[in-house]
């Protein structure tokens, strides 16, 4: 979609996309646990993938408009500009992203970074809100079926020690905290890296797209994971309570 993209870059993207597709097919078709979490608990991964795709696509359309403007690119650019101005206030994540730019950055690049950051941040907030709505409406993660912790949480070891519910709640809260903190922390890390000579050229379209996408997608994904872990902990606790009440009703508990 980017007019200035080279043929070598397009080939690299195609290779990465092929490997990502093969990895996804293998992970979802394997019977044993894998690295992909919540693979049997839709729409967790669907929401995250849709948010990632929508963010990259929207920013690509905006960047395409810099060289080849059209009615579609103008619509995305005007919408992002309105969102960027609305969210660009003191100590906001968008203001911090703009603050990482060097002092000699042109106003055109500053506006592009602000607009891209505003649109991407709003889309990440919407993805979190949409996941929470689906979580409530569809009674996620079971929806009437069984939830296999081993399959859906392959990196979580229930036998590692300690109560499972407490560990899930703790991990969920840590993920929620990190998800809320990272939009403010990532610009600080980028600024510190710039002081050590690792400058990001946000005037380049591809660098701008992937930097802003990572800045919004990673915190949103971590926050949604925290919400999901907290929900699973609550589900396990409710199942325990029902089993305890049933055993008590049948006289199977010691007096």
Which short descriptors sum up this protein?
mainly alpha, 8 helices, 72% helix, 0% strand
Describe this protein's structure.
The protein has 255 residues and is mostly helical. The protein starts with 6 loop residues before the first helix and ends in a 6-residue tail after the last helix. It contains 8 helices and no strands. Helix 2 runs antiparallel to helix 5. The model has no long low-confidence stretch (mean pLDDT 88). 72% of the residues lie in helices and 0% in strands.
List the helices and strands and how they pair.
Blueprint: H1 7-29, H2 44-67, H3 71-87, H4 93-99, H5 107-137, H6 149-152, H7 164-195, H8 205-249
Helix pairs in contact: 2-3, 2-5, 2-8, 3-5, 4-5, 4-7, 5-8, 7-8
């Amino acid at each position: 979609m980017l007019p200035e993209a080279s043929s070598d870059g397009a080939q690299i993207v195609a290779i990465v996309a092929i490997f990502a597709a093969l990895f996804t097919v293998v992970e979802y078709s394997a019977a044993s646990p894998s690295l992909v979490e919540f693979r049997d608990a839709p729409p967790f991964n669907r929401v995250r993938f849709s948010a990632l795709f929508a963010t990259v696509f929207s920013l690509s359309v905006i960047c395409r408009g810099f060289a080849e403007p059209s009615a579609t690119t103008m619509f995305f650019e005007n919408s992002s500009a309105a969102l960027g101005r609305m969210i660009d206030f003191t100590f906001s994540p968008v203001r911090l992203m703009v603050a990482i730019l060097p002092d000699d950055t042109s106003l055109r690049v500053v506006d592009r970074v602000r607009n891209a950051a505003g649109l991407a941040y709003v889309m990440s907030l919407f993805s979190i809100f949409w996941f929470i709505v689906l979580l409530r409406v569809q009674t996620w993660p079971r929806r009437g079926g069984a939830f296999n912790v081993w399959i859906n949480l392959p990196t979580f070891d229930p036998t590692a020690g300690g109560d499972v519910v407490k560990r899930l709640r703790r991990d969920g809260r840590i993920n929620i905290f990190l998800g809320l903190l990272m939009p403010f922390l990532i610009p600080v890390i980028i600024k510190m890296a710039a002081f050590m000579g690792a400058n990001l050229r946000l005037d380049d379209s591809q660098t701008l797209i992937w930097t802003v996408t990572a800045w919004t997608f990673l915190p949103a994904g971590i926050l949604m994971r925290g919400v999901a872990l907290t929900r699973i902990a609550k589900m396990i606790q409710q199942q325990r309570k029902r089993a305890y009440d049933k055993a008590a009703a049948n006289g199977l508990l010691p007096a």
